[in-house]
Design goal:
Layout (H helix, E strand, L loop, with lengths): L19 H12 L4 H11 L5 H42 L7 H28 L8
């Protein structure tokens, strides 16, 4: 078979099977069920009517994979949260101080702000005062 140029690709050439990058975008478009039917009809017009099994198989297997991936992420997050809460309960029972995740986030923000203030103060003495001379 030879590929002939008979007109522009669909979607201004962004979605096609001309190279591996654009083909991956097309596969993602089919898996995410966004305008997959118009892409299938375009491929049917260009190649053959019998490309529909490829698209149906891609939709079924791709959607199954995406759902399983989402379930794994949810289950993993649930397991981590359960472990963290059990550790917090054990620490409370043992009399140790329990630090919640939001407290760690606040401590991190305070650290970043403190470092930022230090950097800004250092820059003021260099830039505003000119050649390291303090403007005050």
């Amino acid at each position: 078979y030879t590929c002939e140029q008979r007109g522009p690709n669909y979607y201004n050439g962004h979605v096609s099977f001309d190279n591996i990058g654009k083909a991956l975008i097309a596969v993602f478009q089919v898996i995410s069920l966004e305008e997959w039917s118009s892409l299938m009809y375009a491929v049917q017009d260009a190649y053959s009517f019998w490309v529909w099994p490829y698209f149906v198989l891609l939709i079924v297997s791709g959607s199954w994979f995406a759902v399983n991936l989402a379930l794994v992420v949810i289950a993993t997050q649930f397991k981590m949260t359960k472990r963290r809460e059990l550790n917090a309960i054990e620490d409370t029972a043992a009399g140790r101080k329990v630090r919640r995740p939001w407290e760690e986030l606040v401590v991190g923000f305070v650290w970043v702000i403190t470092c930022g203030k230090y950097v800004v103060e250092r820059r003021k003495t260099r830039w505003v005062g000119g050649f390291g001379v303090d403007p005050a």
